[in-house]
């Protein structure tokens, strides 16, 4: 019995998997196992030998069972440790960094424009990009053969429908839908058949309109001055130049002092010292009439600006196409959080 136990211990020493252990266990404790055989011998012995022998064999059996179950536990532990070792992660290895998204420069500028006007108590109105020719032109005092239509190279869609060439048709929509007094801006996309370094077939404008009973050009001048100085800096010099728009009378174009040469004259400002920045004026009586308002009672002020142009001048960008190519090397300049 001592020998059996010794042999068993030797045999399982080299075993490292449960499968082999099971086989060895069967050879000792299975139906035909050697210990089982010894147990079976009990019945062949005489009564006085039986007790002593029986005790010894049973002790051997318990001892063998104990050894097997301990071995089985240690094999399980071994396997677990191996797999833990295999799955080990090196958490000190630097991860791969992803570039974080950030706001597009046009979104940044648009938000800034909206913030300034909201601070002045303007609300925000929106209109569709697919617009009635009627709203885009006719009701803005540009009937069919009006020469001013030629200034807008238009994408026509269907009979009477087009891609709006400016945000001014929102003036008509709001006049028709809302009750004055009104004070709103309307940002959005506009479309013209034009493409070069400073023109894109799709670009953004912000329209503005104020309607009330007592308004004068000086209100317009004041609001434009406050807005442009907030946007370009309090020192910014402005110039109001008489101009023409069919839907305003009188009309003006507002210039800011050239951001490059500060008024001394350079290529950017064509040596004038000033840069054209927005169009504005007093709402034409025909626009009020078209929308069903009495121009004797209601007065209006309106303005419109190009968002790309505002952004180009603010950040010194010289090619409008950069806004739409989505080149990360360009876009990341406008993000505080971008990671290269
Ligand atoms: N709609 C004009 C344009 O696209 C801008 C403008 C708006 C001018 C409102 C005057 C008043 O050029």
Description of the molecule:
The chain has 340 residues and is α+β, with helices and mostly antiparallel strands. The two termini are 75 Å apart. Strands 1-5-6-10-9-8-7 form a seven-stranded mixed sheet, with helices on both faces. The protein has two domains: 2-87; 105-338, BirA Bifunctional Protein, domain 2, CATH 3.30.930. It contains twelve helices and ten strands. The protein has helices at residues 2-13, 18-29, 34-41, 47-86, 105-119, 133-136, 169-177, 217-232, 285-290, 307-315, 322-325, 328-331, and strands spanning 123-124, 130-132, 156-158, 161-163, 182-191, 202-212, 238-245, 248-257, 274-283, 299-306. Phenylalanine (PHE) is lined by residues 166, 168, 207, 245, 248, 279-281, 302-304.
Topology of this structure?
Layout: H1 2-13, H2 18-29, H3 34-41, H4 47-86, H5 105-119, E1 123-124, E2 130-132, H6 133-136, E3 156-158, E4 161-163, H7 169-177, E5 182-191, E6 202-212, H8 217-232, E7 238-245, E8 248-257, E9 274-283, H9 285-290, E10 299-306, H10 307-315, H11 322-325, H12 328-331
Parallel strand pairs: 1-5
Antiparallel strand pairs: 2-4, 3-4, 5-6, 6-10, 7-8, 8-9, 9-10
Helix pairs in contact: 1-4, 2-4, 3-4, 5-10
Bound molecules: phenylalanine.
